Fold these 2 entries.
Entry 1:
Amino acid sequence: MMAGKDIVLSGKKIVVVGLGLTGTYTSLFLSRCGADVVATDVKPASMIEGREELEKAGIGIEAGGHREELFMGADLVVVSPGVRTDTELFKKTRETTEVVSDVELFSRLIDVPIIAVTGTNGKTTTTSLIEDMLTRSGIRLFAGGNIGVPALRFFEADHQMCLLELSSFQLENISTLRPRVSALLNITEDHMDRYRSFRDYVEVKFRLLMNQKEEDHVVVNTGDRVIREELERRGSMGHALLLPFSTEEEPAEGICLKDGNIVCRYGGRERLYPVEGIRIEGVHNLENIMAAIGVAVVLDIEDEVIKESIYSFRGLPHRMELVREIEGVRYINDSKSTNTGSLKRALEGFSAGRRRVVLIAGGKDKGMDFSVLRDVVDSRVKLLILIGEAGEKLENTGFSVRTVRATSLEQAVFMARENAEPGDTVLLGPGCASFDMFRDFEHRGNCFRDIVRGL
Ligand code: UMA
């Protein structure tokens, strides 16, 4: 397999950690490049999917844990995003061996421009919009990363450009990744079971920008308080050119909302995009669109293409997806809401004081502070139905609305149906991860859809 840059992988002893989507693909890729690969996972061998294919490719598998000696003898260790590397094992490994993420390895191999998107929420929507704009304009684009496609799949075809959705996990073990254009959408609390503090999480998000140079661009939400304060704290963005966007202020150059339009001022031009006609709802989605416009104008994408894209985009599954309306009650699947920030944003889209939302929330707790939801829940929710491991913690948060517990999603939907009246919305807005009851957020959303369709 050919890579764009001249990096020797052949003959190298490489350990791949984690055998999910990322690790499995990375192991096979490295093996095809001639590396001597051993992959390790904490799971027992019997639970590793794709084991046969890996073994057939000559890849060694060490299951049931990570053995220190294996790491010590390697030339390179490549970690999957879900693997924590602030442990003793990795501290010791780093003394002799480089530890990188698959995204870092990938960025060392390619020589086409990288566009990268991060933020706590809205990453996939923004990435999908940018993907649509760039492919509509004829660019042979690869889109991957946290969106569910391992970055190294880039090499499966001849691509001109690469678009990556990057999570904080994927930004942890990078050192040279340098996006030509980066987009930083928002930062609110998430993954507090992985980071020691919110500050650490903010620092990781800002790593996206650390290698950018004068000719690169950062499209950044200056309307986001945490981002704005961090920019002020840092005094500058480093070297890249800043293209701010905000739904609250009007920057001289940048993207803002004015008189019912998204206004983009860049490169001596002013472009207008009427908000009317946009089919995805909520201020957060306007922000996602603004970020995508920012990236597109920096890349010189034609205005007509940008317009085609933003006015035809209908949103993604599991993100405020209207499943069905039954007897005047709307059932909305927002299973992708896996943190308090996204749940807060979703609820803010409903009128305050009217309390027309029956909210199904809960799931696996990620160490979040649920009290930030108090005002928005108390002013919009008529009944709170709690599911999953976080149920008790949510119940003790001190919401003033009527709260009940359900033992399954099915029971929660039935309770919602009994209590909802015409004009109400039943919202699956977990605000938590899904792994206590489901495989992932998609599985949770699909189950909700099936239950609602069966009502
Ligand atoms: N494992 C170990 N050792 C550990 C920890 C985990 O061996 O210390 C093993 C697990 O047993 C499992 C494997 O690692 O077999 C799982 O690896 P992983 O958690 O990195 O998951 P992948 O299947 O490789 O998927 C990852 C991303 N997952 C996470 O970041 C948790 C996917 O993002 C991403 O789409 C995919 O790579 C392709 O790039 C998902 C996600 O939930 C959507 N992301 C989080 C989010 O969006 O909030 C960050």
Entry 2:
Amino acid sequence: MERSLQPTWAAKRAALTTFMTIFDKAKKTLQQLSVTDAHGVESLFTELRAAAERELAESISRGAPNPAQREKLAKALRDRWLARKGGLVAQVDENWLKTAGKDLKPAVGKQFNELRRSTVGLEFEKLIEAVPVKEAPVVQMGLPLGFEPAHATPRDLTLPGYRRPLGSIHPVIRMQREIEDIFLRLGFRIESGPEIESTYYNFDALNIPESHPSRDDWDTLYIDSKTVLRTHTSPVQIRSMEKYGAPLYILIPGKCYRHDNPDSTHSPMFHQIEGLAVDEDITFADLKGTLDFFAKMLFGEKVRTRFQPSFFPFTEPSGEVAVSCFVCDGRGCRVCKESGWIELMGCGMVHPQVLRNGGIDPDKYSGWAFGLGVDRFAMVKYDINDIQLFFQGDVRFLEQF
Ligand code: DAH
């Protein structure tokens, strides 16, 4: 009983070797490593060849800042592997090949020849040729840039490859898709339009007059006097009406731009989703019913919606929609800033002139529209207090989604 709890020496040694690097193993004999068959020999050599390939590939991808440094690097690498006295190949010759018993000798000999063949890339002249001189190290995710398999030794295809770390969906896009899904279920289609937009589509066609303050270059990023970075997704309303006519049920997600200084609630680039429904006999009741359904799908059955009058040049009447706070149920908390309500979006019945500008007869058709800020939705939903976090690309933040 007691005996069986004691590990044998062989087991102890085997356990020890699992913590040794391949370079430590090169200093031991096969016997010391408890390698007793051809299979064990093969895996030892495979490990060593992989190490050589890795070091070669790393040197090639990293390159050297100048020719002198390259020479130094090439010499160090060559000596480490190929020096007649003490190089890794020489160690293997001494410790593995020369000491191998009769039965293992052929296997070790064969593997040793292969090792020699696969380390020719580490010869000084070959290294000088393969390692590029470059100013700064350029390393991409996955394959190191400048890595050319042609220079490398024959590759062992059974080795694990370079792995790209898996990413995840950005929280803003995740929010966007969640909203899209709700409207797709209602029969809406996704549309898109250009981010570089004419002042006609961005303003004029939407009934926004020349004198409107939003056209000021304090608010809008102009490319020239007739071209802007679109300030909202609403111009795609007109483009889609022109393209498809009525009836029309569309959702328009996309990036928008404004002349804003970045702070915790503003970003010069942000995301909106526009909704547009045009058909015969569309009324404000359709708008209310649809947005109430949307809010319940997104925030839970028990939320209520509130519509307040507002003004937008492209809708008449216009409204602001708020939802009862889904955290405190309207009692007041940090998320709703003690008001019990969370502002969601602007909306309204499409202005007859806007329909006309889109080529649709306002006597035959009517419509409703809304526009919401996706970044703000994501901030509310994920309890994020700084919009800048979305756009800084810090993986410590992004990894949480
Ligand atoms: N375009 C508006 C903005 O950027 C949002 C908006 C309000 C869009 C009302 C609409 C709407 O379609 O009906 O502030």
